[in-house]
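Bug #2210: token dump truncated for DUF397 domain-containing protein?
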Amino acid sequence: MSTTPTDWRKSRRSTNTDNCVEVGRIEGSWRKSSRSQQVSSCVEVAPTAVGAAVRDSKDRDAGYFTTTGQQWRLFVTAIKAGRFER
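Reproduced locally. Full output below:
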């Protein structure tokens, strides 16, 4: 899997300004969270050389964010510990 984003595009909310957010695409082996089961609102994860890329399955074209390996491990540990349960 490539960790270099491709297909960079300017955010739709960045009209005619030079200070814009650009979003790139990571191509590779995205997989749906094993905790998502049959729900359509899911998180998809792809491994990178330094951690993970995460995106929303409902809007794949919106982009993704990346984490380091340590950030990803801490996040998964917090989920397993129930820190995000209501």
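Output looks complete on our side. The chain has one domain: 6-80. Marking as cannot-reproduce; reopen if the truncation happens again.
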